[in-house]
Amino acid sequence: MLCSLAIDIGASGGRHILGVFDGEKITLEEIYRFENNVVNKGDDIIWDVEYLLAEIKKGLKECAVKGKIPQTMAIDTWGVDYVLLDKDGKEILPAIAYRDPRTAKVQEEISKIISSEELYSRTGIQKQNFNTVYQLYCDKKSGKLDKAERFLMIPEYFSYKLTGVMKNEYTNASTTNLLNAETKTWDCEILDRLGIKKSIFGDLNMPGTFIGKFTDEIKAEVGFDCDVVFCPSHDTASAVAACPLEENSVYISSGTWSLIGTENMVPVQSEEAFKANFTNEGGVEYRFRFLKNIMGMWLAQSIRRNVGKRYSFQELIDMARTSKFEGKINPNDDKFTAPENMLETVREALGDKNLPLPDVMKAVYSSLADSYAVAIKEIESISGKTVDSISIVGGGCQAMFLNELTKKATGKKVLAGPVEATATGNIISQFMYLDKDLTLEKARETVKKSFNIKTI
Using alpha carbons only, what angle is made at residue 357 by residues 354 and 359, rounded to the nearest 5 degrees? Predict the structure, then answer.
């Protein structure tokens, strides 16, 4: 019997999910849940890392209260964001969130030092305004980087606060735009040319690496001890690890973002891939996640907040299903990244500031489905292969209306599930740490047996 705890933190919330493997099937149990959101602090958009750490510890205490003590635990979060630490291991705050607009000011300056084409040829990572490379350059210009002695991405930072051990992990580091796709290590030439000191970056560790035990202080506070290990600490890498992929299939990890792509053993860095803005992020066992970031449930999440959470997500979906509205938006337009009011912004984009909510939601979901169809056609063109099926995983796979629209827009077979793909991928990587005979292939077969996967 294997027992591991996934702490899965996304842009809108986090969960502590316990996974148990009896040798045949995996069962999951939610232990604790908490909310998350960016915080406006002065001119900055930040993550409240003190609050998040407190919630992580509350969930660990809940494990002890319920008598559900894991053998291991691992943390996954979104990519690109980080915490800098000084020579004493103290945080240099605030932890700026990727939705902060500060990086828009340095795009042109960086492109004169190293072009977007060269960055892609070295890292294989798509150009996005919020990539870590741009954030760190902002920190260099502001002087924040001067005092930094270590760079930890968000999940690595929380693992450090629990164990006292600072380590960097490969899959999340791959989102920084600072890893060389060929060597799979930090690209020192990029760092040198941008004037970002190399000494703050540690050696990269793969999922399944032991980080440390709880510190004495944490152990006393939460009531138990366990091994803290690395899962694929980028949440999409964890989700893809659990994805029941078929031959010639693509995955859509559907959450705050919709990440759509394929799993490859080598990066795809062709001119066509660059122009289509596809990325090559790191996965388990040095696989590459060839994918495209498409705006996902962030639109619906934000609209739901704008209406005071009067409606559940299912109620919003049901509203959309009743609408005959045919208007569309470009869900990847920058104006939807961090608007003051998403509902007003979408209505404005649709040309009607009084558009009924059901019509707004229909436009959101149908526009997402259309953007999936475009991305799949791009994958087929770049790879030269015909995609047969789409595997939609994550919380967004429960939006059956969106799944139906996706099937209609793409003409492909659509599979939905598992819902808890990220937590499942996090957990199976811990099981692989505990049981060295458990391969990724065997773990994925176990996922298929353990969870209800629906054909749309």
Answer: 90
Query: Which one is catalytic: 76, 187, 227, 235?
Result: 235
What's residue 414's pLDDT?
96
Whether the pTM exceeds 0.85: the reply is: yes
Mean pLDDT, range 313-323, rounded to an integer: 96
What is each CA distance from 167 to 10, 19, 80, 158, in whole angstroms?
Answer: 21, 24, 16, 11
Are the beta carbons of 432 and 438 closer than 8 angstroms?
A: yes
Residue 192: active-site member: no
**Rg from Cα positions in the chain:** 21
What DSSP letter does each residue of 438-452 carry, written as one string? Answer: --HHHHHHHHHHHS-
Q: How far apart are CA 211 and CA 164, in angstroms?
A: 9
Q: At what angle do helices 440-450 and 421-434 cross, to 10 degrees?
A: 130
Domains delineated in the chain:
2-235 (3.30.420.40), 245-416 (3.30.420.40)
> How far is Cα 197 from Cα 151, in angstroms, rounded to an integer?
10
Strands (E), 10-140: 13-21, 26-35, 39-41, 44-47, 72-76, 82-85, 91-92, 95-96
The pLDDT tens digits of the residues spanning 44-74 come to 999 999 999 999 999 999 999 999 999 999 9
Q: Could you count the other beta carbons within 10 Å of the beta carbon of residue 148?
A: 21
Count of CA atoms in the C-beta half-sphere (13 A) of 158? 26
In angstroms, how far is the first alpha carbon of the chain from the final one?
A: 34
Nearest partner of 235 among 11, 2, 4, judged by Cα: 11
| 8 A C-beta contact, residue 172 and residue 156 | yes
pLDDT tens-digit map of 192-231: 999 999 999 999 999 999 999 999 999 999 999 999 999 9
pLDDT score recorded for residue 101: 93
Query: How remote is the C-alpha of 146 from its chain's centroid?
Result: 29
Q: Residue 93: its pLDDT value, please?
A: 94
Q: Please write down the long-range contacts of 187-196, taking CB distance under 8 Å and 24 or more positions apart.
A: 187/122, 187/123, 189/122, 190/114, 190/119, 190/122, 190/123, 190/133, 193/113, 193/114, 194/110, 194/113, 194/114, 194/133, 194/136, 194/137, 194/140, 195/140, 196/136, 196/137, 196/140, 196/145
How far is Cα 78 from Cα 157, in angstroms, rounded to an integer? 13
Q: Which residues fall within 8 angstroms of residue 72, CB to CB, at 6 or more apart?
A: 4, 5, 226, 227, 228, 229, 430, 433, 434
Mean of the per-residue pLDDT values of the chain: 96
Give the model confidence (pLDDT) of 291-310 as tens digits.
998 889 999 999 999 999 99
